[in-house]
Write a structure and sequence with these properties.
154 residues, alpha+beta, 5-stranded antiparallel sheet, 3-stranded antiparallel sheet, 2 helices, 19% helix
């Protein structure tokens, strides 16, 4: 069997590590200057935690904003917890880094996009392909990329 370097997965880990580092700094020191984040995540991720009414309203993905009002930002190796205000209703969320689809800081025109994710099993190994799987039954893991920020410009 030929062995090769999986640059796509290495890039995913590195870019998620960047997000972890940024959020850890914000949790310790607050948001500097005009920095703020739009973070889109997959609400179907098995480890994502959000209120049932939010999951019903956002059955596939949700974009959160970390800017003026956020509380209890806690960052771990696997994800982050934050309490956000939804119409004067504070709600805690847990977002695994593997569930993040986009991370954007429009104040400095920086953004990352992760196309799709396969969720790993509990042992941390990639999910095994069964003989009954077809390409339409499972989403492939793909590479991450830097994105254009035109969508978020004012």
């Amino acid at each position: 069997m030929t062995r090769s370097i999986d640059y796509g997965n290495l890039m995913h880990r590195a870019m998620r590590g960047l997000i972890q580092t940024v959020l850890t700094d914000v949790s310790e020191s607050g948001l500097p200057g005009e920095h703020h984040f739009f973070i889109t995540f997959d609400t179907r991720h098995p480890d994502a935690e959000l209120a049932n009414w939010l999951r019903e309203r956002y059955p596939e993905e949700m974009t959160i904003v970390i800017q003026h009002w956020f509380d209890n930002l806690t960052v771990t190796n696997d994800g982050f917890t934050v309490t956000l205000n939804f119409g004067d209703n504070p709600e805690p969320l847990y977002v695994p880094f593997d569930a993040v689809r986009t991370f954007v800081d429009p104040s400095v025109e920086f953004g990352l996009r992760f196309e799709t994710q396969d969720y790993d099993d509990e042992d941390g190994d990639e999910a095994e392909e069964s003989p009954d799987d077809t390409p339409k039954d499972r989403a492939p893991r793909s590479d991450a990329e830097v994105v254009s920020l035109d969508k978020w410009r004012k």
